[in-house]
Write a structure and sequence with these properties.
The structure is a single chain. By secondary structure, the protein is of the alpha/beta class. Helices cover about 35% and strands about 25% of the residues. The strands form two sheets. It has a six-stranded mixed β-sheet, sandwiched between helices. Helix 8 links the parallel strand 7 and strand 8. Helix 4 packs across helix 5, helix 4 packs parallel to helix 7 and helix 5 crosses helix 7. The longest helix has 14 residues.
Length: about 280
């Protein structure tokens, strides 16, 4: 651990750092997660506005991926994970017993770090969600519209029967985004979606994020500070001390967090002194 890091005192997030949005699409209150007996994140509270890009940043191991997986109950799939607190979506706690986690995951979709197209055709990848949900839609229109929104249609329109595994990594990631868009999600969670891609593909993903955020809320985990500064409307900073428990330390508009951070740890992180 660096000297700068040792000099930065651990402190809890203050009330003034919590943004109070009117009619947020997501409200998270006192969220904590344990894996077995190990506390991963503690007492995280924040809200998310509609149709904006929120960048979730912080050093490795501070709980960013754990947090993002709570927002659509992906942590349910980890046997020893225990989530406490509330995640309110459409005025309901998604962890209530009467909430269908599968339905939540269609309304709050997720795109992972490594592209994960199904071993099916490009067409069937995009059509998968509507078919599984039994949606009464024109699949041809859904596939085309979703691929267009993902800026992929012109590249694959003559290859719809080809395997989704036979296209480039950047195209595969956009295919996964198209597959997510096909069920009309209200929120898309992205866990470092461009970290495995080349610079040109990364630029395509960034352009795509800005475009689809006109219609969908996006929460993105990224270790790339330049990327976070380029694409986000708001930035949420997490940090963990020596005890390795992730906590939210700052949340604000993009320009404020990157140019005038309120917390000295945020300044140290975004300037590269810790990380």
């Amino acid at each position: 651990m660096s000297t700068d890091n040792n000099q930065i005192k651990s402190k809890e997030i203050s009330e003034e750092k919590i943004i109070d949005f009117t009619n947020p699409i997501i409200e998270i209150n006192n969220l904590s997660v344990k894996y077995g007996n190990s506390l991963a994140i503690e007492n995280v509270t924040f809200s998310v506005p509609e149709k904006k890009v929120i960048a979730l940043i912080g050093p490795s191991g501070c709980g960013k991926s754990t947090l993002i997986r709570c927002i659509n109950r992906m942590n349910d799939l980890i046997p020893n994970a225990k989530v406490t607190g509330n995640v309110l979506f459409e005025d309901q706690n998604i962890y209530d017993n009467n909430v269908d986690a599968t339905e939540i995951r269609y309304k709050i979709g997720m795109v992972f770090q490594k592209p994960n197209p199904f071993p099916k055709s490009i067409y069937d990848n995009v059509a998968f969600g509507p078919r599984v949900n039994g949606l009464n839609v024109n699949l041809d229109e859904v596939v085309e519209n979703s691929l267009r929104k993902a800026a992929l249609w012109d590249e694959v329109k003559d290859r719809l029967n080809d395997s989704g595994l036979d296209i480039s990594g950047g195209q595969q990631q956009r295919l996964c985004i198209a597959r997510t868009l096909a069920v009309n999600p209200e929120i898309i969670l992205m866990d470092e979606p461009a970290s495995a891609l080349d610079p040109i593909s990364t630029q395509s993903i960034e352009n795509l994020i800005k475009e689809i955020s006109k219609d969908v809320t996006i929460i993105i985990v990224t270790h790339n500070m330049q990327q976070a500064a380029r694409i986000s409307d708001y930035a949420l900073v997490m940090m963990s001390g020596e005890e390795r428990i992730g906590r939210l330390i700052e949340y604000g508009e993009n320009k404020q967090v990157f140019d005038n951070p309120k917390d000295e740890r945020t300044e140290a992180y975004v300037t590269g002194r810790i990380g």
